[in-house]
Amino acid sequence: MVMNFKYQGSPKTVMPVLITYFENEKFNIQHYAPEDGYILTDYKNYSLKRGNVKLALSVHVHDLVVIRGMGKIEVTTGGLGDPDEITGIKSVDELPYSVQKEVFLPISNDLDSLGLKRLKNRR
Q1: Residue 85: what pLDDT?
Q2: Which pTM does this prediction carry?
Q3: 44: helix, strand or coil
Q4: Quick one: how far is CA 52 from the chain centroid?
């Protein structure tokens, strides 16, 4: 899960905008390195109809803003391992698209309203 955005100004002007947005969206900033153009959030929990999902973001700001989502999803583990544990949390490289639409893609719309324009393909 990767989204790329172009923006106006310098990385030093867009970094505070991103930090404010993530804090307003209840993402816990785990690491912030403005001199390197880097932001890392802790996992944020989402309760969806299909189960619990966790999403963390890794953000690099240089000529583009590149946001990479890292997901964990609750899966049924019935019949596997400990019989007392019906569900477990599994790290995944790609969340199912239906989950991405609910937790990752809304960030694109929000950032668009803040002046960042999503690129369909990285140049």
Answers
A1: 60
A2: 0.83
A3: strand
A4: 15
